Amino acid sequence: GKTGWIGGKVAIMLKEQGAEVVLADARCENRADVAKELDEVKPSHVFMAAGITGRPNIDWCEDHKPDTIRTNVIGTLNLADLTNERNIHCTVYATGCIFKYDDAHPLGSGIGFTEEDTPNFDESFYSQTKGYMEPMLKCYPNCLILRVRMPISDDLIHRNFITKIVKYERVVNIPNSMTVLSEMLPASLAMAKKGLTGAYNFCNPGVISHNQCLDLYTKYIDPTYTYKNFTIEEQSKVLKAGRSNNELDSTKLMRDMPEDIKINDILTAVELCMQRMQKNLTEEFGPLPDSLPKEFRKN
């Protein structure tokens, strides 16, 4: 995923740490090409961040199922299998959008899904492919599987969860586990270096709601910003596919996290992220909110 959002960030972080980084040329669905490149480069670690999420969102996957399978299933399995054959550690940036609140994990209960729980959300084809994948990936002893959710960064890139919901006319307001990349991506490199394998809920501890995210955006980025809520039932009428809402248990992640890595709870992490975004955007564009790009100004 060298041209992708997370893959690009990972490559930069590795280079900053002094690692020798090779950006793969082979498409992950082309098994022979991947095998050839692995044999030529002989890496100690592989980081797999390629994946189809659709444009502008996962609804795209509903109408492009073969394309989605090709990368999210065939490509990911190719890499897991080929790296396992060569005894290479493989980190897969996967997803935690394979669960939804249920009777055993009620909304607001603080009872999160663990790494051992079976996926229970299949209301989007994207999540279906990811739900198929995880049990198979767990069969590979060399794979570190990181369940990323609703990733947040300190810039206005279109993939940033907060950037996405800022542009929506209406939002649901549901507490969710989320991943603040500035904290979690360095953690993933430390986990790979430590040789950790298996599945991990790769989110900051705790949950945060859509409204809490937007309130922090209003506080630090645009005091004039306003938003409206609607229900999941109303949301479902304007979407092709359902959306996952869940809390993921962070016990295993925090237990196994290398000691020198600090992970904040999600509320603290998002507030710190918005503070950095305020600084970054002010330096790039000038005083906020007047300098914000037009697409982010509703008023």
Strand and helix layout:
Elements: H1 5-16, H2 31-41, E1 45-48, H3 59-62, H4 65-85, E2 89-95, H5 125-137, E3 143-148, H6 161-166, E4 170-171, H7 181-194, E5 198-201, H8 210-220, E6 228-229, H9 232-236, H10 251-256, H11 266-285
Parallel strand pairs: 1-2, 2-3, 3-5, 4-6
Q: What does this entry look like structurally?
A:
There is one protein chain. This protein has 299 residues and is of the alpha/beta class. 41% of the residues lie in helices and 8% in strands. It has helices spanning 5-16, 31-41, 59-62, 65-85, 125-137, 161-166, 181-194, 210-220, 232-236, 251-256, 266-285, and strands at residues 45-48, 89-95, 143-148, 170-171, 198-201, 228-229. The strands form two sheets. A four-stranded parallel sheet has the order 1-2-3-5, with helices on both faces. Helix 1 crosses helix 7 (181-194) and helix 8 (210-220) packs parallel to helix 11. The chain is globular, with a radius of gyration of 19 Å. 38% of the residues are buried. The model has no long low-confidence stretch (mean pLDDT 93).
Query: Helix- and strand-based class?
Result: alpha/beta
* Proportion of residues in extended strands: 5-15%
Poorly predicted segments: none
Helix proportion range:
40-55%
- Radius of gyration from CA coordinates: 19 Å
Please summarize the sheet with the most strands.
4 strands, parallel
| Rough outline | globular
- Strand and helix order: HHEHHEHEHEHEHEHHH
What strand order characterises the main sheet? Answer: 1-2-3-5
* Mean pLDDT figure: 93
Secondary structure tally, helices: 11
